[in-house]
Amino acid sequence: MADLRVGLIGLGMMGRHHARVIREVEGLELVAVADAYGDPHGVAGKLPVCASVDELIAEGIDMAVCAVPTGLHEKVGLALAGAGVHTLVEKPIADTVEAGQRLVDAFESAGLIGAVGHIERFNPALQSLRARIEAGDLGEVYQIATRRQGPFPARIADVGVVKDLGTHDIDLTSWLAQSPFTSVSARTSTRSGRPHEDMVTASGQLANGVITSHLVNWLSPMKERLTVVTGEKGAFVADTLTADLTFYENGTFTTEWEAVSNFRGVSEGNITRLALTKREPLRVEHEAFRDAVLGLSNNTVTMREGLNTLRVAEAMLDSARRGVVRDL
């Protein structure tokens, strides 16, 4: 079978990584790239740099990766859908729910694979964590807490931290628990002088009763990407920067040293750092998208799922603006 012909539009920080991985994945051939501002990272190689999505489409592509700024996702995505091109759009799906809905409608009505690049789902620590939750290793899940913070990325200018970073946590939380959000409450602040929020703290509840908390900002000097899932048998801690997964088991031995038990509870169990096969999440994401286009499997993050994540993000922003709990 001939390789799928792939086009890439958007050659910025994420675009350069997409270009590298597309070239590495079996069954894919990068045949065209596009960016109205040129190729700052030199990823095109011998390929010409198209100036628009129309020029990219004219190169005869089977599938595309859209890594342009969020505000352009709708325009580029609709053009690709209209041309019959399967498309992976970087997260979030769009800058507004209305734009996201139009993308969902366009790809679904055309019978095309439309996916959103919520890459955390393909992190080995979180993939292992979800499998272990499904296997009952944690028993009933009580809470999912995430921390995602670090310095401001100069590449982001058209959305705030909720839609850019926070959508990672919204998506992975719902995916791990296999349950949608039913309510959220959030507070945001803008400390950097930019027009969009750069810090958020949010709490939520899922349909299955799991409660959630999320700390996200662009104002921290250290980079942190942690997900903690607490349940009846203990807690899992996933660090998606290092793809490490650690299990803190509920205790089976009584702690008789009163000074210690005052701080640690009445018992403590084993702590196990789990051995995982660590593959690059972006590569796994591209393999999943390739297989979906070929009809072999469908493990992508669908555009409809991406739209639901964006709805929760907008509810968080509305909650922060109005100081209310938002039901979903």
How would you summarize this macromolecular structure in one to three sentences?
The protein has 328 residues and is of the alpha/beta class. The chain has helices at 13-24, 53-58, 73-82, 97-109, 124-134, 161-177, 258-264, 281-293, 303-322; strands at residues 4-9, 28-34, 49-50, 63-66, 86-90, 114-117, 141-149, 181-189, 199-206, 211-217, 224-231, 234-239, 244-249, 253-254, 267-268, 271-274, 326-327. It has two domains: 4-119 and 283-300, Rossmann fold, CATH 3.40.50; 121-277 and 310-327, Dihydrodipicolinate Reductase, domain 2 (2-Layer Sandwich).
Written description of the protein model:
The structure is a single chain. By secondary structure, this protein is of the alpha/beta class. It has 2 domains: 4-119 and 283-300, NAD(P)-binding Rossmann-like Domain (Rossmann fold, 3-Layer(aba) Sandwich); 121-277 and 310-327, 2-Layer Sandwich (Dihydrodipicolinate Reductase, domain 2). Helix content is 33%, strand content 28%. It contains 9 helices and 17 strands. It has helices at 13-24, 53-58, 73-82, 97-109, 124-134, 161-177, 258-264, 281-293, 303-322, and strands at 4-9, 28-34, 49-50, 63-66, 86-90, 114-117, 141-149, 181-189, 199-206, 211-217, 224-231, 234-239, 244-249, 253-254, 267-268, 271-274, 326-327. A 9-stranded mixed beta sheet has the order 16-13-12-11-7-10-9-8-17. Strands 3-2-1-4-5-6 form a 6-stranded parallel beta sheet, with helices on both faces. A two-stranded antiparallel ribbon has the order 14-15. It is globular. Keywords: NAD. InterPro entries: Gfo/Idh/MocA-like_OxRdtase_N, Gfo/Idh/MocA_Oxidoreductases, GFO_IDH_MocA-like_dom, NAD(P)-bd_dom_sf. GO terms for molecular function: nucleotide binding. This is Gfo/Idh/MocA family oxidoreductase. It comes from Arthrobacter crusticola.
